[in-house]
Amino acid sequence: MAKPLTDWKCKVTIFWWTNALLAVISLAMFFVPMQASITMFVFIFVIGVLHQLVTPIQWVMMSDTVDYGEWCNGKRLTGISFAGTLFVLKLGLVFGGALIGWMLAYGGYDAAEKRRTAPRLASLCAIHDCSGDLLFAERDYR
């Protein structure tokens, strides 16, 4: 699905609009009632498909950047480019895990608790649905 789309439009445009659509769908998922499990599964399926669309485009854009750097400077920096990207990806996983832990602590989450109260359930839904949207919006703010 990524190849026909990137043949039709610029990779950066497809990447940006797919991420924007992911943010909108994730935010909309926050407002789906908990009893609407089929709707939730549809949202999760669409989000999964969109993530599978974004990932190859991201890696192709990195290799295009390496090719452009070689064309401009005569040096190919593939190792630095991919190692730097993987480092930042792992750093994002670390901060993402910490952010989830902080949000759970702020929401008063207790793993031993048998019954979840409405505020705790709302904080769990916010972590799942809205945390990515906030980071996406912050990225474009700069």
Automatic annotation (TrEMBL):
Gene3D superfamilies: MFS general substrate transporter like domains
UniProt entry tagged with the keyword Lipoprotein: no
Keyword Membrane: yes
Residue intervals passing through the bilayer: 14-32, 39-60, 80-106
Keywords: Membrane, Transmembrane, Transmembrane helix
InterPro entries hit by this protein: MFS_trans_sf
A Pfam family of this chain: MFS_2
UniProt name for this protein: Putative carbohydrate transporter
The organism of origin for this protein: Escherichia coli
